[in-house]
Specification:
Blueprint (H helix, E strand, L loop, with lengths): L11 H15 L2 H13 L1 H7 L4 H8 L3 H13 L3 E3 L5 E3 L14 H11 L1 H5 L1 H7 L4 H5 L3 H5 L4 H16 L2 H7 L7 E5 L7 H5 L6 E6 L1 H13 L6 E5 L12 E5 L7 H14 L5 E6 L10 H13 L7 H10 L3 E7 L5 E6 L8
Parallel strand pairs: 3-4, 3-6, 4-5, 6-7
Antiparallel strand pairs: 1-2, 7-9, 8-9
Helix pairs in contact: 2-6, 4-5, 6-11
């Protein structure tokens, strides 16, 4: 007799529902590929300007009219286009979110998620076999070259993240709490640090530091200049893995440690410790791995993303505590923001009065 696991078989309706859900998930590549191709060709912007025929679009883009017509029918099926009686295709109101510069940031997300991540995720078997990121295997270049500040992919990614941070700054606002006048807040290795714009809006005496590679800083300077905040931000070049020669009251690692293996993450924390004064604060802002995968599926998918892309990982609270303590620091508080991101308030331990 087989071992009784204590589990009951699902009834036919439950089983059928699960199978239908899996079928939909397997077939979702259709929509992802159509969206990516549409925004790559600039179709949402062209159709938003005016309805066009397949022939007119194909002529303007140097493409074939018959495949274009078939492609547009796919967008109709996704309710992103409408086929008009005169043979033209029009953008639906919902699809305006895919136009360039729309606050939704969906066109940029399609470029990043499908254009940059698809092949590494499709090649995840390489990571399962080797324990190494699949990105170099899939794209024939390492992460530094692919996402590096001099690479176009890297610049596009940093611009995408900056738009997301400007549109949704609430989590870090909650993480930092009340800030005394004159506080200096430093973004370490986090790209443009666009979230600092919201922080600086809280008081005219607050100042900021953006610490990252020089090419990243060039774009960051332009961003804060447009926001009319550049005079309150210092832009310092460097690498968090090497040293952090930054003077600030609050240091922020936003989604940085998760990009590195334990050795790299420990080195970053040690560099933070070396630059922090006794009263300095370090905010570690990233998702924490839940005990039950169903409690936070986004954390699980982020962990797999790090496996495929960077070689980093999402860590449990215990793993984070161990990593931080090993760097000679201590967690003074832990809470979650409304968007599910964990905030670890890290400080230097109080000196032993007897030592």
């Amino acid at each position: 007799m087989g071992q009784d696991t204590g589990e009951q078989d699902m009834d036919e309706d439950e089983q059928r529902a699960i199978e239908e859900r899996l079928k939909g998930q397997i077939a979702s590549y259709h929509e992802a590929a159509l969206l990516f191709t549409a925004v790559t060709a600039g179709l949402p912007d062209l159709l938003n300007a005016e309805p066009r025929t397949a022939e007119a679009l194909a002529s303007d883009l140097g493409l074939k009219p018959e495949p274009m017509r078939r492609f547009l029918r796919g967008l109709v099926a996704m309710q992103l286009c409408e086929a008009l009686d005169d043979g033209r295709f029009a953008l639906t109101p919902a699809a305006k979110a895919l136009t360039f510069g729309n606050p939704s940031n969906l066109s940029e997300k399609a470029f990043v998620a499908v254009g940059q991540y698809w092949m590494p995720w499709m090649s995840m078997m390489y990571s399962l076999r080797t324990g190494e990121p699949s990105l170099p295997f899939a794209l024939n270049k390492n992460f530094t070259d692919w996402r590096g500040p001099k690479a176009e992919e890297g610049r596009f990614f940093f611009r995408y993240v900056a738009k997301e941070e400007l549109a949704n700054p609430g989590g870090l606002r909650d993480a930092l709490g009340d800030l005394p006048e004159g506080t200096v807040i430093a973004s370490l290795g986090g790209g443009y640090g666009a979230w600092l714009a919201d922080v600086l809006s809280r008081g005219p005496t607050l100042k900021a530091v953006v610490f990252d590679a020089p090419p990243v800083l060039d774009d960051a300077m332009r961003l804060f200049d447009v926001l009319e905040l550049a005079d309150r931000v210092a832009f310092l070049p460097g690498d968090v893995l090497e040293a952090i020669p930054v003077s600030a009251d609050v240091f922020v690692l936003k989604s940085v440690l998760q990009q590195h293996d334990d050795a790299g993450a420990a080195r970053i924390l040690e560099n933070c410790r070396d630059t922090m004064g006794q009263s300095g604060r370090l905010i570690v802002y990233e998702r924490i791995m839940p005990e039950d995968a169903c409690d936070d599926p986004e954390a699980i998918m982020l962990d797999l993303h790090m496996l495929a892309i960077t070689g980093g990982k999402t860590r449990t609270k215990t793993e984070m505590d161990t990593l931080i303590a090993g760097a000679g620091l201590a967690v003074g508080g832990h809470r979650k923001t409304a968007d599910g991101i964990s905030v670890l308030d890290v400080r230097r331990p109080e000196p032993d009065p007897q030592s």
